[in-house]
Design a protein that fits this description.
By secondary structure, the chain is mostly beta strands. It has 14 helices and 49 strands. The protein is elongated, with a radius of gyration of 32 Å. The strands form 11 sheets. Strands 37-38-39-40-49-46-45-42-43 form a 9-stranded antiparallel beta sheet. The relative contact order is 0.08. Helices cover 14% and strands 35% of the residues.
């Protein structure tokens, strides 16, 4: 048994419970000459045309042990990425002029102590992070170099004009995330491999900006942002959340505030990736923040000042109620989780003329990040809105083992702190998991953030329009591929010649595909993919940067059914066909058995279902277990008002189950029409009271034997998707095992839904099983190896054990996942992604499947 010592001096004899404490960053000693180049500040001024540059340098010399400065001089050289010399100091600067610099009585010295003109250097941006190497050499009186120092520099200009943010003269948008230093094993100690994985994933998922929340991130992270290209909002290590704005309005704390600004800027001032200084987070607003801003502006006027706390409110008036001008010490108007409507009104008002952004939005805790595209529709429609930073990048779970030795990600209360104050799983807010692996929401972010917009421009969709929403990159730097899909299968494909399309421009393009020979009941889609033409530092050639799938509106022939010749018999509550049998329970109205060739395929179904395992947004903010509990009760408490079996013809039997749900004042009639070939048309007619609350979901649930664990579907995929988070999913033909398809959130919750499902099948290892096809409208569906109760009650993945059956949800609709925040009513999905209580109808057909050919067989009920 290992013994671990805690930071408070006590001991804990349990190797599975420990605290991460100590120094998170590298500590090292360096040796330097007694006369040394102690520090330097680099600024790059671009001319009015953003072409040529003036490299301005302000060095700092220090002398130790009264060493002599006589004869010392400083020079510099600049090299390009091929190590070719492009500039050097025209005349060396005497070190004593640096060391003994004086300040005037009035005014202040110019920034540049050394400078040179550089003709048309390659500019730095997140899209093209061109770097140069600046090398200083300090020589003694004998002309010997006693010290070299170097740094990477980037030539770029950051400006705010007319309410917009400009980089190198181009108006840009920040497609951002908030990021913490985090590793699931070492906590705040992050190595280079972990940071490189972060930045590669960000770049591959179209993220161009990162906010250092809420402290200056590891220095090496900034080097990587310079190298790979990310716009960085560097943030001071300052938050007084618990006591709000008390300290910023207390002069005793002025030095502590100012020190945090000075340390951040002095450490990070030479990174071209940093475009903004942030004065901290959630610490109120007062003269101490204004002081920080003033010092930064006096010291570095090349970047903009951000601080979300700099807001003006009068009395108890809420900021959302009216537009109020923020204090002048910030350069941008910043908000957290503020409704889109307010931000649009602010951008349209004549009160605020500064850029407007969300420094935090789209709270991505658990199954979340709904309606992301609505934010970006507003941002792109309003020039003062310059983007936002999703909260946040990575789930901050810690890798642990349970008593059985199984790995899991721990959160608050899991490491000997159950009786202490903690925030449970509120550290799990990321769009990637603790290992940096993309989650389903990451794909939505990639799609919404993609730099090209593609849409059909004519009815036949032979011609498309591409809009280039990059800021500095031409479309001709990419390959464009297209394909025509028939029922999810590619039937035509091709590539286009390079297309010259400058940033901010649009162009109509004709595609050379041919109208296919149309098949009965088939659907046709055109998919356009924009891919890297060459290997880049962050992705290989062929990496997909942007895509669009466009439905081709062909008038396809109608499916003709084969005539059903087999007759049916009704024996009590059992319907018997040639090779199948369906059993009903007259007490519940449910199917208690559906077997074909003596193979049991349904063992319980279909139960009316209005509930889902709670997401974090459901549980913490929306509190639907309280506010919508009438639908949870309706799921488990119903009155069967009528059950009837009627033989309509020798080959057709109709079964009706009618329910009332007292808790929600609603009713449902489920009609099963059984045909002689073993297929069943299921019709769900729901009548809801419009005065009732919204429904979490509207559907039916069944249980099938666990052997039918191969899931094939034609609908949105391959990852889970919901009505407010489905833009990043294709309509396609996908296949996965039920166990592997289930997405395991660290704290189990509603998961693995699919929208726009035309049909899905669950089959065993021999290809035998069931196919369910939408009739009246496309379905929403999911299949779980666990029970909904187990998912809802578990706090960790290892607490879930696969059942002896598979739970299958066949829904008309499930409400969205929401996520504007996770702690208030705004956690609910937006109104258009809710399900108001009212009248709804949907239907689908169940068919037995015996081989792959049966999966292709369409069906239209007679």
């Amino acid at each position: 048994m290992k013994v671990y010592r805690w930071s408070d001096g006590s001991y804990l004899e349990d190797q599975d419970h420990w605290r991460l404490s100590g120094i998170h960053r590298d500590v090292y000693l360096t040796a330097a000459p007694k006369v040394q180049l102690y520090d330097f500040f680099v600024q790059t001024d671009l001319d009015e045309s953003y072409e040529n540059a003036t490299l301005k340098l302000r060095p700092k010399i220090k002398v130790f042990d009264n060493a002599s400065l006589e004869g010392y001089s400083l020079g510099f050289k600049v090299y390009d990425d091929k190590n070719k010399l492009i500039a050097k100091q025209p005349a060396r600067l005497d070190a004593d002029k640096i060391y003994f610099e004086t300040s005037p009585q009035r005014g202040q010295n110019d920034f540049a102590m050394m400078q040179t003109e550089i003709k048309n250097p390659k500019k730095w941006s997140a899209e093209h992070p061109n770097l140069y190497t600046l090398v200083f050499d300090l020589k003694n009186a004998e002309g010997e170099v006693v010290e070299y120092k170097s740094t990477k520099i980037g030539f770029r200009a950051i400006e705010i004009k007319d309410g917009e943010l400009f980089v190198n003269g181009k108006s840009i948008l920040l497609y951002g995330v908030n990021r913490h230093d985090h590793d699931p094993v070492t906590g705040k100690v992050v190595n280079r491999e972990s940071m490189v994985n972060d930045i590669l994933t960000m770049k591959q998922f179209n993220i161009n900006a990162v906010r250092a929340a809420h402290y200056p991130n590891n220095e090496e992270w900034l080097d990587l942002c310079d190298e790979y290209g990310l716009y960085v909002m560097d943030e001071a290590n300052l938050e007084t959340h618990g006591i709000r704005g008390r300290l910023t309005n207390d002069a005793m704390w002025s030095n502590a505030f100012l020190e945090r600004a000075v340390r951040m800027v002095e450490r990070d001032k030479n990174h071209p990736s940093i475009i903004s200084w942030s004065l901290g987070n959630e610490s109120g607003s007062g003269f101490n923040h204004a002081m920080m801003a003033q010092w930064i502006k006096s010291y570095d006027d090349t970047r903009f000042i951000h601080y979300e706390g700099a807001q003006t409110t009068f009395g108890k008036q809420k900021i959302e109620d009216s537009i109020l001008r923020d204090p002048e010490y910030v350069d941008v108007v910043s908000r957290m989780y503020t409704p889109i409507d307010y931000m649009v009104r602010a951008s349209e008002s004549d009160i605020e003329d500064r850029p407007i952004l969300w420094c935090e939005y789209a709270h991505s805790m658990g199954n979340s990040t709904g309606n992301l595209n609505e934010f970006w529709e507003a941002i792109k429609a309003n020039k003062q809105m310059i983007g936002g930073f999703i909260w946040d990048w990575k789930d901050q779970g810690l890798l642990q083992k349970n008593e059985e030795g199984e790995d899991y990600f721990a959160y608050g209360g899991d490491m000997g702190d159950a009786d202490l104050s903690h925030s449970s799983n509120f550290c799990l807010n990321g769009i990637v998991d603790p290992m940096g692996t993309p989650k389903p929401a990451t794909w939505e972010v990639k799609k919404v953030y993609q730099p090209f917009e593609i849409k059909a421009s004519i009815t036949e969709n032979q011609e498309i329009e591409i809009s280039n929403q990059y800021h500095f990159t031409n479309l001709n730097e990419f390959d464009i591929a297209w394909e025509v899909q028939e029922n999810g299968r590619r039937i035509q494909e091709g590539k286009l010649k390079p297309i010259d399309l400058e940033p901010g421009k649009s162009k109509q393009i004709k595609l050379p595909f041919k109208k296919p020979k149309l098949k009965a009941g088939a659907e046709y889609f055109l998919r356009i993919s924009i891919n890297l033409k060459t290997d880049l530092s962050w992705a290989d050639k062929g990496h997909e940067v942007a895509w669009e799938q466009i439905k081709l509106d062909y008038d396809t022939p109608v499916i003709k059914n084969q005539k059903v010749r087999s007759q049916l018999e009704v024996n009590g509550n059992t319907i018997v066909g040639k090779n199948f049998e369906i059993n009903f329970d007259s007490e519940t109205g449910f199917i208690t058995g559906y077997s074909v060739d003596d193979i049991q395929m349904i063992q319980n179904g279909f139960q009316p279902n209005f509930w889902r395992p709670l997401t974090d947004n459901d549980r913490l903010g929306a509190k639907i277990h309280d506010t919508l509990r009438n639908w949870k009760e309706a799921t488990h408490t119903r009155d069967l008002k009528d059950f009837e079996i009627e033989q309509l013809s020798p080959q057709t039997v109709k079964v009706s189950s009618s329910y009332e749900f007292p808790s929600s004042k609603s009713s449902m009639k489920i009609t099963y029409t059984v045909y002689g070939d073993g297929s069943v048309l299921v019709e769900n007619d729901f009548a809801g009271d419009s005065a009732q609350t919204i429904l979490p979901r509207l559907g039916l649930q069944m249980e099938i034997p666990k052997g039918f664990d191969s899931l094939t579907w034609f609908g949105k995929g391959p990852h889970e998707n919901y009505i407010d988070r489905q833009m990043g999913a294709d309509v396609g033909l996908f296949k996965q095992s039920v166990l592997n398809d289930y997405y395991s959130y660290i704290r189990p919750q509603e998961s693995s839904n699919k929208t726009d499902v035309r049909w899905f099948a669950l089959t065993n290892s021999k290809g035998i099983g069931l196919k369910l096809s939408a009739v009246s409208n496309n379905l929403s569906m999911s299949a779980w190896p666990y029970s909904p109760e187990d998912i809802n009650n578990a706090k960790h993945i290892y607490e879930l054990t696969p059942k002896d059956h598979i739970t299958v949800n066949v829904d008309y609709r499930q409400m969205g996942v929401g996520g504007d925040d996770t702690w208030s009513v705004k956690a609910l999905p937006h109104q258009e992604y809710q399900i108001p209580s009212g009248n709804y109808f949907y239907s689908f057909v169940i068919q037995p499947v015996f081989n792959a050919k049966d999966l292709k067989r369409g069906y239209v009920p007679e």
